[in-house]
Every structure is written in structure tokens, then in C-alpha cells.
Amino acid sequence: MIERDQDGTLHVVALSGGHDSTALAFLLREREPRPYCYLCTPTGDELPEMFDHWRRLGELLGRRLIPIMQTEHPGLFAWSRHKKLIPNRTKRHCTPGLKIEPFVAWLQAQLSFGPVVAYVGLRADEEARAGGAYGAIDGIELRYPLREWGFDDPMVHGTLARLGITVPDRTDCARCYHQQLGEWWRLWKDHRALFIEAVEFEAEMGQTFRTPKLESGEPVMVTRYGLTYAACWRDTWPVRLGDMMTLFEAGHVPMNRGDPRARDLLKVGACRVCSL
């Protein structure tokens, strides 16, 4: 339900379901009580536990989260077919097309009914991020309460612990180009059908989620465990998920099992929106 305050202002919380936005939603309710509208921007490629998390947050907050999605080409695969490109580390068309643009368009559509304030979960220890991925939005007042209150990462996690809220390990797409090698292994292990679907999608598109290691314009070929394959730019495992699945099925397990919280987001260029 969309409810404005007594002055006719709509207060919108960008609630991706990550640690920061989740803590923000509950802290706003405690510190600045008013009617809030909670928005999430699913790509449709999230893991099942993420959808369960969104439903649980709606129950705890007493208001169902409103999903805002790309409607003409919904979902990561449909959007990639439209763009004729699987997202990669240099061309992240997924985040702006599937998350930022639909969110901004929805906010601006609400301006015809009155003022809109949007709350985004950037922390005080993210000084380098002046306005986040959203930047300035015409006609919309943007606030960053965690930053206003001086909340850093440990304080956010302390808030979630106090509230008894556990955030899923993965809040991004199940088939994200940026995920770690161990996260691909966990996807193959725990969600085999989703992994196989990604293998088939790579074959359909003639592209890969993982970027090849380039040397003089050519992928580096590696022979490992009896399999010769093109290697990824940041490790020595296959760039093609089909080759990676061959190694997984043969019992080979990456040493790094995948820790999303350990990603160095600022240095390797991952989009903050997907983990906010």
C-alpha cells in the first residue's frame, strides 16, 4: 500500500534486502516514525532464499515490499537477449537496466501526486560514494540516514543482530558475472538446475559470464585435471561454465568456497546496488 504522510509527502525506502538497506528500514521506523513505502528491485534471477527474505521483511515491517521490475524485457536472461550481451565486468548493463532505471522511473511517476523523499542505505564509512549509483534524481529528495547518523559497517551488523535478522549470503543475481569462483561452485552444488540453465544460456548467446584472460587479444589456454580450456582473467579456472561443470562433476572443488562479504567491491568494480 502506498501511503503519504499528513503533509502529502511519500517516503520511499530503497530496500534491496542487503545488510545496509535492511538495517536502514528498521532504524527509520525506530528513529523517525512515519508511513514508509518499501521498494525492492528484483531482477527475477535471485536465489529462492532472497524472495523468502523479502517476504519476511514485509511481515516484520508490517508492509509488503513493492517489487519494481523492468517490464518490457523482464529478467536477467530476457534483458541480456535484448542487449545481445551477457553482462560482464566492463559492460554492466544489468544494474542500470534492471534496477536503477525502473526505480527512478517509478519514483518520478509518483511526483504527480506530491513530493517524494527516497532513503538510501549508504553508510558513514563510504565517504567516497558521494551519492551512490542513483546520483541525483530530478524532483526527488534523496537522504542517506545511515551516513547522517554516523553508522558504519559494524554498527549496521550490530543493529541486525539486535533485531535478530539474518540476511542471506547472496542478495544479487544467482548468475552474476562478478561472483567469486566459490559462489559458482555453491550454485552448482545447491541449485544445479540454475547452473545448468546458465551453461545453456552461454551456449545460446555464444558468450560467457566469466571474462576470458586476455594476452595479446587471445584467451589464455590452460590444461588442468586433463581438461584444456580458456581461463578466466582473475583465476586459472575455466571461463566457460560448461567446462567448469566438468571439473565440478569430477570432484574438483575450488579452495575459496565463496564469501560475498569478503568481496572488495570498490576495487574490482562490482555495483553497490546489488549488495546495498
Short structural summary:
With 276 residues, the chain is an alpha/beta fold. It has 10 helices and 9 strands.
- Outline the biggest β-sheet: 5 strands, parallel
Q: Would you identify the regions where 5 or more consecutive residues have pLDDT less than 50?
A: 263-269
User: Average pLDDT, to the nearest integer?
Assistant: 90
CA distance, first residue to last residue: 23 Å
Helical percentage: 25-40%
Q: Numbering strands along the chain, what is their spatial order in the largest sheet?
A: 3-2-1-4-5
Sheet-strand content, in percent, reads: 5-15%
Secondary structure category? alpha/beta
Tell me the total number of β-strands: 9
Q: Radius of gyration from the CA trace?
A: 20 Å
> Number of helical segments?
10
Question: Any chance you could write out the topology, listing elements then pairs?
Answer:
Elements: E1 10-14, H1 19-31, E2 37-40, H2 48-61, E3 66-67, H3 76-83, H4 94-110, E4 116-119, E5 141-143, H5 145-149, H6 153-163, H7 181-190, H8 192-205, E6 214-215, E7 218-219, E8 221-224, E9 227-230, H9 241-249, H10 265-268
Parallel strand pairs: 1-2, 1-4, 2-3, 4-5
Antiparallel strand pairs: 6-7, 8-9
